[in-house]
Amino acid sequence: MSVTILSVETSCDETAAAVLVDGINVKANIISSQVDVHRKFGGVVPEVASRKHLELINHVIREALDEAGIDFNSLDAVAVTYGPGLVGALLVGVAAAKAIAFGLDIPLIGVNHLEGHVSANFLIEPEPAFPIICLVVSGGHTDLVLISGFGQYELLGATRDDAAGEAFDKVARVLGLGYPGGPLIDELSASGDDTAVSLPRSYLAEGSLDFSFSGLKTAVINYLHRAEQKGLPANKADVAASFRRAAVDVLVDKTLLAARQHQTDTIMLAGGVAANRLLRQEMVFRAARESKQVLYPPPLLCTDNAAMIGCTAYHKYLRGDFAPLTLNAIPNLPLGLDRY
């Protein structure tokens, strides 16, 4: 018997809802982005994001049901992201999902946003070969995770300061490119020389799987300041390309190190920065030299969406892992530790 789940995602600045059947059949995946709203601020303003979610949530859910060709009575469960993320934004989605679960008397499933990003890969490869090393890389997170099976995670390393996506946004800002920075730097880098500017790579202690991008970001800022003080024009494309190369080198090196340490043959990319073209190319090229497979979702599923939440929820549904109606938003929720 098939399982139909409505999933909701409001952890940051996308209001999203999806309908999935059996965890992989995406009947609808609606995303209402707030990028244009926040662009004038140079980043996401939490209070503004929360208000926009309130305005959009009911419309987005209705659109998802309509596109899937079903009504509320066809649902077997409702799932929602309850952390990590912006607390005000999370609360909008959690409140909506709890109301639906209560009104229909169906199971409520709480989903970790990071687990959702990981699960985006399972929409492409439903039966991967475990164990897997996954690099979760986004605006708020840069984590290396060992996945032993569905819902089984061990955090191996994380950023000690800036997340990779955060560094991309900050460098884009000082280059005057705008927001969001990751796609803009990726695009500009295509016309630049990634060896033009000498930038540091932080590997920390030998064998460490942690990350640090604060120094790299600062090095770019200092380079631009020195060029300005000397009255020399900085080639933005070269700076962007050199920065991207430095960040990607560390991400790839550490991911492959983790795969060697844990003797895994499969590597996955997840999160918004997983859409970066150089990261994908380098990971595939270098992993192939070690006979390792690399999986990554299409760009639409790298950014925040509700389909990935629905995929995660399906496996929790099969385990009977349901949340109580007292479920609350947890902005700093760690991966692999449900706090119902």
Outline the structure in words.
- The protein has 2 domains: 4-119 and 302-319, Nucleotidyltransferase, domain 5 (2-Layer Sandwich); 129-296, Nucleotidyltransferase, domain 5 (2-Layer Sandwich).
- Helix content is 42%, strand content 19%.
- The protein has 11 helices and 10 strands.
- Helix 6 (181-189) packs across helix 8 (236-261).
- The mean pLDDT is 94.
Task: Give me the secondary-structure topology.
Blueprint (H helix, E strand, L loop, with lengths): L3 E6 L4 E8 L3 E9 L1 H5 L6 H23 L8 E7 L3 H18 L3 E5 H7 L12 E6 L4 E8 L2 E7 L5 H11 L6 H9 L24 H16 L6 H26 L4 E5 L6 H12 L4 E3 L3 H4 L4 H13 L21
Parallel strand pairs: 1-4, 4-5, 6-9, 9-10
Antiparallel strand pairs: 1-2, 2-3, 6-7, 7-8
CATH class of the largest domain: Alpha Beta
What would the average pLDDT be, to the nearest integer? 94
CATH topology group of the largest domain: Nucleotidyltransferase, domain 5
The order of strands across the largest sheet is: 3-2-1-4-5
Principal-axis shape: globular
Number of domains: 2
N- to C-terminal distance: 28 Å
Low-pLDDT segments, ≥5 res:
none
Helix/strand class: alpha/beta
Number of strands: 10
CATH architecture of the largest domain: 2-Layer Sandwich
Helix content class: 40-55%
| CATH H level, superfamily name of the largest domain | ATPase, nucleotide binding domain
Profile the largest sheet: 5 strands, mixed
- Round the Cα radius of gyration to an integer and report it: 20 Å
Secondary-structure element sequence?
EEEHHEHEHEEEHHHHEHEHH
Beta-strand level of the residues, as a percent range?
A: 15-25%
Number of helices: 11
